[in-house]
Amino acid sequence: MFSATTASGTFVKSGKLKPLAITSSKRLDGFPQVPTVAESGVKGFEVNEWNGLFAPADTPKPILARLEEETRIVVASPAVASRFTELGVQGVGSSSKDFAAFVKSETAKWSSVIKAGSIKVD
């Protein structure tokens, strides 16, 4: 498994590092030869590194709408999309509503992992 960050992606492309699988649910455009963990035999396995934009709760809706639209434009731009592919990053550019649902889902998933593993902060 590997996170296709700039450093590891560079080693993979140079042949100095051989990835066994990626943790996302589908193969990455920049690394199509690398199978997913699920394809490798662990069905239902999906762990994603993700980033998102957040704004204060009291941010006016017109400003949020503008940020959402401009973010979608940037993520879809050829230069950014190409760079994301090169780095092994999948740009999403989802709506605020979809992103909120995703964050809620991730919070629930990892909360249950923390509880099941009795994980504590040291």
Tell me what you see in this structure:
This protein is 46% helix and 0% strand. The chain is mainly α. It folds into two domains: 1-49, Periplasmic binding protein-like II (D-Maltodextrin-Binding Protein, domain 2), CATH 3.40.190; 51-117, no CATH class. It has four helices and no strands. The protein has helices spanning 6-14, 61-76, 78-87, 96-116. The model has no long low-confidence stretch (mean pLDDT 87).
- The H-and-E topology, N to C, reads as HHHH
Tell me the number of strands: 0
**How many independent structural domains?**
2
pLDDT below 50 for ≥5 consecutive residues: which ranges? none
Quick check: average pLDDT?
A: 87
Helical content class: 40-55%
SSE blueprint:
Blueprint: H1 6-14, H2 61-76, H3 78-87, H4 96-116
Keywords:
D-Maltodextrin-Binding Protein, domain 2; 122 residues; 4 helices; mainly alpha; 0% strand
